[in-house]
Amino acid sequence: MDTNIGSVDTLKPASTDMCSPANGTVCTLQTSVSLPSPDSTLGRHLARRLVQVGVTDVFSVPGDFNLTLLDHLIAEAGLNLVGCCNELNAGYAADGYARSRGVGACVVTFTVGGLSVLNAIAGAYSENLPVICIVGGPNSNDYGTNRVLHHTIGLSDFSQELRCFQPVTCFQAVVNNLEDAHDLIDTAISTALKESKPVYLSVSCNLPAIPHPTFSREPVPFSLSPRLSNKLGLEAAVEAAAEFLNKAVKPVLVAGPKLRVAKACEAFVELADACGYASAVMPAAKGLMPEHHPHFIGTYWGAVSTAFCAEIVESSDAYLFAGPIFNDYSSVGYSLLLKKEKAVIVQPDRVVIANGPAFGCVLMKDFLKALAKRLKPNNTAHENYRRIYVPEGQPLKSGPKEPLRVNVLFQHIQKMLSSETAVIAETGDSWFNCQKLKLPRGCGYEFQMQYGSIGWSVGATLGYAQAIPEKRVIACIGDGSFQVTAQDVSTMLRCGQKTIIFLINNGGYTIEVEIHDGPYNVIKNWNYTGLIDAIHNGEGKCWTTKVRCEEELIEAIEIATESKKDCLCFIEVIVHKDDTSKELLEWGSRVSAANSRPPNPQ
């Protein structure tokens, strides 16, 4: 580990008074060590560490194994405990929080809570988000015995939960004694920050309240040693990339989602400024490059790219992808028209140019900054884009009281966006409709593309809004996804959040209909506004409405953004079950074809 936690001094006694002979009198040598203060506990140390790294809200579900720990987290002045309706949403909330703050945390109980939150932690792992998952574990005296405990699967081996977390976390620690607790806690938190992945931290239920000398002082601030590029490797990679790109006629840049984990967003913009190349983003990278940039040409997503973007990218004779993830979803069923020999692929710590060479130990941020100084300006691709670009048309004008169409809905959502808003797009058709939104300067944008877990957005909206209360979150959620995680609208109300939720009610799992239809994609219709009114129950600020036509939508948006701007606003939008974006139709057919490929001949 290259982490300087500064914990060495904390291992020294707080004070040592040694009696020395006085007036020639011989006395017995005595060593007196002052007792730790009541605040010198594992629980308070963990709380202080969370605050120190930027976590001021922890999402939790209480259970008998974590109650004492929760007491000590609550006692920390800078830490707010947010109680969630279930562990899955607590994990999703920590995910959303980490997207805004850079790190998130959740606290659940042993096994029944841990395995419930596991799906959310897996999603955070896939999205490279540092989430600290804290579990209240069994009493330390029960380890190594043949006792069978509740909240387990009935075995005396307590490692089932730990083994489940190992594939979806970058570090796991079981704290069942105080001697190494300080080291394990600090290592877990620092590893999450360095690797930008979730960690698992189990704390025995009888330890949080016990003072210990290792916690007797304020935690020394983390000093995470910066990762450095291999200097010679960096120079060679830049030289080779510059030679490759400078001889291209119409090169382009494409930002990928790993820009975030590489902390290279500013470096990418610096490169785009310097070279003048046409610059696009992959769908999961939307929001990582400012869309008001003069060379921005939209989202590159193969056949479902924004207008004229794919034509420019795929016709280029050289493209630099910074932090890409090429999976079946982002490649539209493996149908991208890209050639390896034309590509420079830049990953967080590696650069590959065409079919070779490859350069390891080269950090993306360093590489992009150095490359910006070596590339010759070339705006050919961007000029080509400007020549062929035709502004998108407006949706057909709705007739009086005509049933609302999805494209009309998003036309009005576009007008709501500003630097004071953020968009959360749920898995489903909202992926495609939100992708076409033009983000003004400072407008946030998040969605979960790699893992694609339906229901993610409810918890993520809770966490994101809690992390950045100055922004008003606009969440676009389908009815099928909402039914998975609806309960934590309750927690949004308890926290006084002012989110606007557009519940798009089309009667089923529309994204799955377009991949493979069947009766299982039709869901029971709920009275969604009635449900939220019941959850509200007169406590907190909440306003709900149903809209069926454009006139009602306009009125609802006006109320939500004016007289109810300090309320959580829930707008149920009734649309036809077959009303989808053209992009979903295209994407669904291609993903379906990829899913249905026959087995290779044996």
**Oligomeric state, counting identical vs distinct chains:** single chain
Mean pLDDT: 91
Largest pleated sheet: 7 strands, mixed
Q: What is the number of helical segments per DSSP (H or I, 4+ residues)?
A: 20
Question: Distance N terminus to C terminus?
Answer: 46 Å
The coarse overall form would be globular
Question: What is the rounded Rg?
Answer: 27 Å
Unreliable sequence segments: 1-34
Write the layout of secondary structure elements.
Blueprint lengths: L2 E2 L11 E3 L12 E3 L8 H11 L4 E4 L6 H8 L5 E4 L3 H15 L2 E6 L4 H13 L4 E7 L22 H6 L6 E4 L5 H15 L3 E6 L18 E2 L6 H16 L5 E4 L9 H11 L2 E4 L14 E4 L9 H6 L4 E4 L20 E5 L2 E4 L4 E3 L3 H9 L7 H9 L17 H11 L4 E5 L3 H7 L8 E4 L8 H12 L4 E7 H7 L3 H6 L5 E6 L4 H6 L12 H9 L5 E6 L2 H12 L6 E7 L7 H14 L7
Parallel strand pairs: 4-5, 4-6, 6-7, 7-9, 8-9, 11-12, 11-14, 12-13, 14-15, 18-19, 18-20, 20-21, 21-23, 22-23
Antiparallel strand pairs: 1-10, 2-3, 15-16, 16-17
Word description of this protein:
- It is a single chain.
- With 602 residues, this protein is of the alpha/beta class.
- 34% of the residues lie in helices and 17% in strands.
- The strands form five sheets. A seven-stranded mixed sheet has the order 13-12-11-14-15-16-17.
- Helix 7 crosses helix 10.
- The two termini are 46 Å apart.
